[in-house]
Structure formats: structure tokens, C-alpha cells
Amino acid sequence: MLNIILFGPPGAGKGTQSEMLMKRYNLNYISTGEVLREEIRKQTPLGMKAKAIIESGGLVDDEIIVQIMGNFMRNVNKAEGFLFDGFPRTYVQAYILDGLLNRIQTSLTRIFILDVPDEVCMERLLQRAGKQNRADDNEQVIGRRLEEYRHKTLPLLDFYESSGILTRISGLGTTDEVFARIDQQMAVEISRRRTNLILFGYPGSGRATQAALLAKELHLTVISTGGLLHEERLSGSATGRELSRYLENGLLVPDEIVIRLIEKKLEQESANNRGYIFKGYPRTLVQAYILDGLLRKQRTSITAVVNLDVPQLELVRRLDARSRTEAKMPYDSSAATIVNRLEEHQVRTLPVLDYYAGQVPVVEANGTGSPAEVFQNLVSPVKKAMLGLK
After folding, report:
1. pLDDT tens by residue, 129-146
2. Catalytic residues, which ones?
3. How many domains does the chain have?
């Protein structure tokens, strides 16, 4: 997830930049004020308690804030993360936010501070007051708001100073110029994240070729269950001998064996790896749940899935042609076995694609044409999906 805090003095343009960030990166906007008002509107027990405090002239305490924010973060619509506004405001709330994010197994990604001189903020706010006919926004009032920011918000940055996630952004220039600076830093941040892709497609769709090309372009490691099974079988290990019995008799390899092989591969590659492309796995819903669990143990998850779409007749032609080469697979032996394999994919694997479609971006790619042509059509939407862009 991408979890961002945007700080800046009144007049720095936080509202506009927040809207642009939310739209581009599919973030949920979360502000204590709006969350409180929503709880009060719904007349929840917490909302009624907060309303009584506010109406008596008091400040809603952190005990209520942490419960309200926690409820919102757990129940909010699916998105790529959160953009926090007006929270945290104190050291205590900074610790609260860390706990809330930890509870949903994520953490702060970056804190952006929009740097704008006081005189520029004053000029912008006075111009806005004139356009909106807001007599209450005069120099004295604006001055107090800027002073409050310096005394209350800036000291909070000391809390995060040693975290390495503070980035100062010049808030001068046009809206687009400021956003381009933020966007550039976001791209750098996202490039550090581990990326995990699943490459779906019928037999004959070209998954092996495209997996290799994507891995080279994106600096990822291909994990192919077929390759893992082949390597283990040749190793002469006890597991390899067990595999031979299944494969020689045309039996499906049990998930328990495949899990151990994938776990071993993930452990071997985890230290210096930017992520994986899974090819040939998962093929069933059970395997999808297993893969999610394996990645969760590494504190990561599936980033996006890619589906190579090739017409059925073209698949049959490709598989039939492959049956006359050294690259042939066991199910390439006849038209009947080819059709059976395609039907098995439709029945068992397409529900897995539906499973991920409700959770992560899905790139539907045209798999016809030369490998180079397919890759050129594929790589750009895959990169966008990795960034959480539409």
C-alpha cells in the first residue's frame, strides 16, 4: 500500500495536490475532521460521544480518535492506500498512526512537506479571500494560522526526522509543476517496492516467452512450477524421486510438494530480489490462497496479474506446431489431448483470474503477433499497473 502524509502551511496548496495524488494513485483521503463528522452523521456510539464533547466546548480525546480512525481504515473502500490530512497533529497521534497502520499490515510510505514562504502563503490566501468574498480571512487571521502551523505542526516533523521518509517539495510554481515534483518522488518510492506479477494464459499463449522478456525488462525473477519440478527431479533428492513417481504415471503433483519447492525458491531469491513473475502457478483457487500466504510470510503480495488473450483456433495451431518440435509438452500429443488441456484451463484456472480481478489490477493483453510485438503492447500497461495507475 501507498500511505502518504502531506504537510504544508495554509496556502501551500495541499488541497489541490491531495486531489491530484488521490486520483493518480487511487488513494483514500482520510481526515480526522471528516471521519468525525461521518461518525456523528451516522449517530454511532462513538459519534454521539464525540458530539457531546464538541458541543460542550471540549476537544475529542485520542482514545476516541484512535477508535474512529481504526474503524474507518478497516472498512474503507478498496484502494491502493491512504492520504492523511490533519492527522497526526501530535507526538501521541504519530504513535497512534503507526499502530493503526501496523494493525492492517502496512506502514507509512512517505511524508511530503510543501515548502512555501510565509509571504507567498499570505498573498495566496488574501487573493483567495478576495475571490470568495471571505472577510474573515484577513492578514491578522492568516498570520495566526501560519504561526499555529509553525508551533504545532513543524515540531511533529522531528518525530519522523530519523525515519528517512521525509521529503521536502518546493510548493512554488504552477499546480502542475508542484505535482510533477511530488510525482517524480512517488515514482522513485514505488520503484523500491517489491513487485509480484502472475502471468495467466492458455497453453500456447506464449507465457514462457513473455515471462522471460518481462523479467529482463523489470528486473524480476521468473518462478515457473514446471521449471522447479524439472530441477528437483534432476537433483536426485528424495523429493525428486517422489516427483518422478507422479510424473511418470501422469499424476498431478500434490500441492504439498509444490509449496515446499516454491518456499525454497522464495527463500533463495529473497535477499537480492525486486520481485517475481509467477508462471504456471496458481492454477486453482486453492493454489491462489496458498500463494497469497507464501508471499504474506515475506511481507509482500501480488501487485498485478497479466492475462495473455489468444483465440482458441490460434492456440490449437500453435500447440499442434509445437508437438513436432523438441519443445513439445506431454499434452501436445494429439488434438484430443490439446483440447482437453484447454478445457481444463478454462474450468480450473479462469476462476483464479476472477479471484485476483477483485483485488489487484488486471492487464488484458493481446497475445497474437510476434513475441516482440506482444511484448511491446504488454510492457507499458504492466508498468502502469505496477504503479497503481489506470
Report:
1. 888 777 667 888 889 889
2. 14, 89, 128, 134, 145
3. 2
